[in-house]
């Protein structure tokens, strides 16, 4: 563990959607900081397809692969398969995670999701409901279920993974906004940002920190690759993992209620960013010139 980096030794973290992409990266970084990380997704040992545009879409990545990466780096991970589209599995996840963590759960990272873009005029009710379930209902239910245990221990940390798409669409509208497809997704992510800030206020006196963290631009992951234009310059997933880690160790009175972005937050706070295994210092974060001009680097 690098000197000056947060030490999560003894903490137990639950990371949803950890079979690949951003969730996997966050799980790796928290484990490298000393946490026991409970990793959850639908794909335990075999990849499971998700729905996109009315068809099954199989994307690589499993929890067992994530666990192997964490253990190879000297960390500890526990695999706990769950389908967050299944109400019963959502309802039991926090209890299962707490049991797997030896009776405690200190950190909850709400990352899971499978974006299914469609213009509003062509969107099915199924896509509408799935988008709400992935990006608002599941974070709400898991946070609600995790809070009593955190309150009993006198501390806790909840991080919801947001999105820069939640920022206002600037006029004149860009071509990608006019093509549409992400309007509902962006709207729900905006709701998640406000949910995070409101929950932070409710939980402040209980010493439970609640923050939202999103990419400053876009991160190319297996699940998002076909939603990002091939020519679009994307950012290293290590920076969002570092930003999430920064939200998981201080008392709520010192850091809560932020909506922070992966390149802006580390740059503004001069955060030392390490590789996912915690062993190598990466170049200082530099917010791209093409990122949304209304992002507040210090977080809001």
UniProtKB/TrEMBL annotation:
Q: Which Pfam families match?
A: adh_short
* Top-level taxonomic group: Bacteria
Residues of the Ketoreductase domain: 11-167
Name the coiled-coil region(s): none
UniProt-listed SUPFAM superfamilies: NAD(P)-binding Rossmann-fold domains
InterPro entries referenced in this protein's UniProt entry, alphabetically: KR_dom (IPR057326), NAD(P)-bd_dom_sf (IPR036291), SDR (IPR050259), SDR_fam (IPR002347)
Report the sequence similarity comment from the record: Belongs to the short-chain dehydrogenases/reductases (SDR) family.
Question: Which PANTHER family does this UniProt record tie to the protein?
Answer: 3-OXOACYL-(ACYL-CARRIER-PROTEIN) REDUCTASE, 3-OXOACYL-[ACYL-CARRIER-PROTEIN] REDUCTASE FABG
From the Swiss-Prot or TrEMBL record, give the protein name. Answer: SDR family NAD(P)-dependent oxidoreductase
Q: Which organism is it from?
A: Sphingomonas crocodyli
């Amino acid at each position: 563990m690098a000197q000056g980096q947060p030490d999560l030794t003894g903490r137990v973290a639950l990371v949803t959607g950890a079979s690949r992409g951003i969730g996997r990266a966050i799980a790796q970084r928290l484990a490298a900081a000393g946490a026991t990380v409970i990793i959850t997704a639908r794909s335990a040992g075999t990849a499971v397809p998700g729905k996109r545009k009315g068809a099954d879409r199989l994307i690589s990545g499993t929890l067992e692969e994530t666990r192997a990466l964490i253990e190879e780096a000297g960390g500890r991970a526990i695999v706990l398969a769950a389908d967050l589209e299944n109400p019963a599995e959502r309802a039991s996840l926090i209890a299962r995670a707490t049991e797997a963590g030896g009776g405690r759960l200190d950190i909850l990272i709400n990352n899971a999701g499978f974006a299914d873009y469609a213009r509003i005029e062509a969107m099915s009710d199924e896509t509408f409901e799935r988008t709400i379930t992935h990006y608002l209902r599941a974070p709400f239910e898991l946070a609600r279920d995790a809070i009593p245990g955190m309150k009993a221990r006198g501390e806790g940390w909840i991080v919801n993974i947001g999105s820069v798409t939640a920022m206002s669409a600037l006029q004149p509208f860009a071509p990608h906004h006019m093509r549409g497809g992400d309007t509902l997704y962006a709207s729900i992510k905006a709701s998640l940002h406000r949910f995070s800030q409101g929950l932070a206020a409710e939980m402040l006196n209980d010493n439970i920190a609640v923050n939202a963290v999103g990419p400053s631009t876009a991160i190319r992951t297996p699940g998002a690759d076909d939603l990002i234009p091939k020519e679009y310059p994307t950012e290293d997933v290590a920076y969002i993992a570092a930003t999430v880690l920064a939200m998981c160790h201080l008392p709520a009175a010192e850091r809560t209620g932020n909506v922070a972005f992966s390149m802006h937050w580390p740059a503004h706070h001069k955060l030392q960013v390490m590789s996912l295994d915690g062993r190598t210092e990466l170049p200082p974060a530099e917010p791209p010139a093409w990122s949304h001009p209304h992002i507040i680097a210090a977080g809001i």
